[in-house]
Automatic annotation (TrEMBL), chain B:
Residue ranges crossing the lipid bilayer per the database entry: none
UniProt signal peptide: none
Record PTM O-(pantetheine 4'-phosphoryl)serine, positions in chain: S37
One Pfam family linked to the record: PP-binding
NCBIfam families assigned: acyl_carrier (TIGR00517), PRK00982.1-2 (NF002148), PRK00982.1-3 (NF002149), PRK00982.1-4 (NF002150), PRK00982.1-5 (NF002151)
Post-translational modification: 4'-phosphopantetheine is transferred from CoA to a specific serine of apo-ACP by acpS.
Pathway: Lipid metabolism; fatty acid biosynthesis; Glycolipid biosynthesis; KDO(2)-lipid A biosynthesis
PROSITE patterns referenced in this protein's UniProt entry, alphabetically: CARRIER, PHOSPHOPANTETHEINE
The protein's name in its UniProt record: Acyl carrier protein
Family designation: Belongs to the acyl carrier protein (ACP) family.
Length: 421, 78
């Protein structure tokens, strides 16, 4: 099987626009979660989110016009804007912008979203009710469709290889990267832009997840403390928005052109819970089998994993079920591995989460630094002798990192990234 | 320039993001101003909104240039 490496990274998250800005703020224990002020939350139980802050540029503020002209921005939902921005960063970082048709034919795009254009759908429904069908924009449908991130990115860079999109709720970003890597392994493409984006921080999105009793509601007055994986006080996840994309490349292809190589995608495992539409199975069997499959694919033993970027959403049930599954796989002390949840800083980016967390895992390998689990002040009783990297980042040499993503519908994905010597 | 002509040109500049100098009477939305078929649908909607007129689909199909738009709107506002 052909080897696949990561040669470009791109991030837009509540911690800012750009990979390095994100990473330094994350290692500095900063939070991107704040009170929602862009729409009315007075009647919503959850009033906070991880929001991408906009500005004219500089200081990590997100400037949409740096990526798309204002007239183009009107034609797309915000989730596509985040996806295109993250992909643009990743492609430029990789330096892979071929002009010849053969190379363009061998470069594909596979970027997903969990929900897609929820804001566009919600606003357009208001419009049709109030003013009738003749006022509906011709751009409404292409603005809301999930696979249109891949469409826009392919048009932007003339990438004419496989054009695909994943929709697996909160596992989307991880599945996109894993599936895109397989397309390269199987020789369907030499280079793939892969990842996820989400922008469901709107009234309908917050109300919907609130109705499913999934969101934190007890920390509206102290937003930065709301996402607290494995902490005794946790009471649900905090929704976030943004996008993450990587450039995946066949190893020899990357070496030949002298590309900067961040890490290798060595493992990818998938499973289904076959249990419940939103709740994870109590025994964590789905997550367990996804991790086991990823280790098998990577041909690694459990004690070779140094760092786990957990799904860790800060829900009362999910966090301990995941930890239980990891313990079952790797032992009560996780075989000495460290595990953290970066959702503590950015919230849960749903369809973008798996891609954003894959990038944080890759940066952890690059810099030998473990990103922290914020707000983990009093770990739940049965956490035991596990290093969950509470509160502060710390140094650790990382050869292999595993990243978990689990989604509604009982879908699970685990990715393993390895340092390339 | 009539008020209608000035407003039409302003809408075209805003929606297509083109230079004002290019928006001459004879300019074709698609051939000269870079619009695609969806852009032209949106333009017609913007004209309807601005001038409070209804432009039926068969009439909209014949609005290909800036002049076509100005003429249609001036006719239907009489």
């Amino acid at each position: 099987m052909r080897r696949v490496v990561i040669t470009g990274l791109g991030l837009v998250t509540p911690l800012g626009d750009g990979v390095e800005h994100n990473w330094s703020r994350l290692l500095n224990s900063e939070s991107g979660i704040k009170a929602i002020d862009s729409f009315d939350v007075s009647d919503l139980p959850a009033k906070i989110a991880g929001v991408v802050e906009e500005g004219e540029g500089g200081g990590g503020l997100f400037n949409p016009s740096a990526y798309l002209e204002p007239k183009e921005q009107r034609k797309i939902d915000r989730f596509i804007l985040f996806g295109v921005a993250a992909a643009d960063q990743a492609v430029r970082d990789s330096g892979w912008m071929p002009e010849d048709e053969e190379s363009q034919d061998r470069t594909g795009v596979l970027i997903g979203s969990g929900i897609g254009g929820l804001t566009s759908i919600s606003e357009t429904e208001d419009l049709i009710r109030e003013r009738g069908p003749r006022r509906i924009s011709p751009f409404f449908i292409p603005a809301a469709l999930i696979n249109l991130i891949s469409g826009h990115v392919s048009i932007r860079f003339r990438f004419r290889g496989p054009n695909h999109a994943v929709v697996t709720a909160c596992a989307t970003g991880a599945h996109a990267i894993g599936d895109a890597a397989r397309l390269i392994m199987l020789d369907d493409a030499d280079v793939m832009v892969a990842g996820g984006a989400e922008a469901a921080v709107c009234r309908l999105g917050i109300a919907g997840f609130s109705a499913a009793r999934a969101l934190s509601t007890g920390f509206n007055d102290a937003p930065e403390t709301a996402s607290r994986p494995w902490d005794d006080g946790r009471d649900g996840f905090v929704m976030g928005e943004g996008g993450g994309c990587v450039v995946l490349e066949e190893y020899e292809h990357a070496k030949r052109r002298g590309a900067k190589i961040y890490a290798e995608v060595t493992g990818y495992g998938m499973s289904g819970d076959a249990h419940h539409i939103t709740a994870p199975a109590a025994d964590g069997n789905g997550g367990f089998r996804a991790m086991k499959a990823a280790l098998k694919r990577a041909n690694l033993a459990t004690d070779q994993i140094d760092y786990i970027n957990a799904h860790g959403t800060s829900t009362p049930l999910g966090d301990m079920i995941e930890l239980g599954a990891v313990k079952r796989l790797m032992g009560d002390d996780l075989g000495g591995a460290s595990m953290s949840s970066t959702k503590s800083a950015v919230g849960h980016l749903l369809g973008a989460a798996g891609a954003v967390e894959a990038i944080y895992s890759v940066l952890a390998i690059r810099d030998s630094m473990l990103p922290p689990t914020l707000n983990l002040e009093s770990p739940s009783e049965n956490v035991g002798p596990v290093d969950l990297v509470p509160l502060k980042a710390k140094e650790r040499k990382i050869k292999h990192a595993l990243s978990n993503s689990f989604g509604f519908g009982g879908t699970n994905a685990s990715l393993i990234f390895s340092a390339v010597d | 320039m009539s008020d209608v002509a000035a407003s039409v040109k302003k809408i075209v500049v805003e929606h297509l993001g083109v230079d004002e100098a290019k928006v001459v009477d004879s300019a074709s939305f698609i051939d000269d101003l870079g619009a695609d078929s969806l852009d032209t649908v949106e333009l017609v909607m913007a004209f309807e909104e601005e001038f409070g007129v209804e432009i039926p689909d068969d009439a909209a199909e014949k609005i290909l240039t800036v002049k076509d738009a100005i003429s249609f709107i001036e006719e239907s506002s009489k």
